[in-house]
C-alpha cells in the first residue's frame, strides 16, 4: 500500500496526457475540414459572448478563400483554439493577399522600393507580448511576432535581427515581397515625387496635379502619396496600411495583434506605431484591448492604445475611451504642417476597442476614407460604421 500514492499520480499524469492528445487530434480534424460561415454555435461557459473586432481589412479581404480574417479568428477561437493563435491565423489572410497593399505580401514599399513590415501581438492571460519592426522578406510578420513572445525573453526584434530570427525558426525568407502591382505603384510615386528625373516611359506629361500646392522637396514625398489616394490609384487604408484585430472568448480571455507595412513610401527604416506596445496595440486581460490604424506618429506620441485601456479601467465605455484618445491627439497636434484650414488634424486615425464584457466600439477622427470596421460575433460578420470625433474630412 505504500506505493499507492505514486501509482495514483502516474495514473493522473497518463490520463491527462491521453486527454490532451485526444483534444489535439480533434482540433486537427476540425481545422482540416471545410467550414461554412456564418459562425458556429457558441457554447459559452462564462458570461461573455465571444467577439472579434478589426479594421476594415479584416472584413474585406479573403485571399480567394471562404473566410475573411475576423470570420476565421472567430471560428477558431470558438472551436477552442488559443485566442491569440486564432487572431494570428485570421490576419494571415490579408497578410498573404496581394490585393491588400497595406499589409504583408504585395504591400506598398518604402522610398527605396523595399517592403518593410511591422507587427505586434499581446496575449492577455499569459501576460506575453512580441513584436518585429522593419522586417524584410517574410510575408506573415504576425507569426514572427508571436514567436518572439513565446520563444525569447524580448518584446521587440528589428531589421536584420528580426529577419535572422525568422529564418532560425524555419520561416521562409524571400528576396522581395513586391508584386507587379506594388512595384508599378512605387514607380508612379517616384515619378510624382521627382518628375524631373523619373519619367513616364509612355511619354505622358508628368507634373504635380493642379490641386496640389507647390511643395518643397521635404513635403513632396508625402504629397505625391496623398495625390495617388485622391486620384484613386491606392485606397486610403493601404496608404497608411495596417490591420488591427482583437478578440475575447467565452472565458473572457483577451488577445490582440497588429500587422502592417506602415506608411507607403516611408523613409527606409521608419517604424510606426504598430509594433510598439501601448501605441499600435495594447491588451490588459482584466480590462480590454485597443488597436489602431492611421497616422502612426500621432498614435506613438500619445500612446493612445494604452490610454484607451486605462480609460476603460477607470470605468469608461469602449466608445468614450476611444473618443478620449482622439481628443488627446487633437489637443497635441499643434504643428501647422499637420493642421487643416480649421485648425484640426489634417490626417485620420481610427481605434478599435474591446472591453472585458465583450462590448466594442470603432471610432475615428473623421468619418472619411475608410468609414467602417469589422466585427464578428455569433451572429456572423458585419461592417458597422465608425463613429467620428470631428465632422468633415482631414482636408477641412
Describe this structure in words.
- This protein is α+β, with helices and mostly antiparallel strands.
- The protein has two domains: 51-176 and 237-390, Glutamine Phosphoribosylpyrophosphate, subunit 1, domain 1 (4-Layer Sandwich), CATH 3.60.20.30; 180-233, no CATH class.
- It contains twelve helices and 13 strands.
- It has helices at 4-32, 57-60, 69-78, 83-96, 141-151, 159-168, 180-193, 217-230, 236-240, 296-302, 304-313, 318-332, and strands at 51-55, 117-123, 128-135, 156-158, 242-248, 254-260, 281-284, 288-294, 349-355, 360-366, 373-377, 380-382, 387-390.
- Strand 3, helix 5 (141-151) and strand 4 form a beta-alpha-beta unit.
- Helix 7 packs across helix 8 (217-230).
- The longest helix is centred in the first third of the chain and has 29 residues, at 4-32.
- The chain is globular.
- The number of helices is 12
Order of helices and strands: HEHHHEEHEHHHHEEEEHHHEEEEE
Low-confidence stretches: 1-45, 209-218
Structural class: alpha+beta
| Overall number of strands | 13
- Give the overall pLDDT as a whole number: 87
Write the SSE topology.
Blueprint: H1 4-32, E1 51-55, H2 57-60, H3 69-78, H4 83-96, E2 117-123, E3 128-135, H5 141-151, E4 156-158, H6 159-168, H7 180-193, H8 217-230, H9 236-240, E5 242-248, E6 254-260, E7 281-284, E8 288-294, H10 296-302, H11 304-313, H12 318-332, E9 349-355, E10 360-366, E11 373-377, E12 380-382, E13 387-390
Parallel strand pairs: 3-4, 10-13
Antiparallel strand pairs: 1-5, 1-11, 2-3, 2-6, 5-6, 7-8, 8-9, 9-10, 11-12
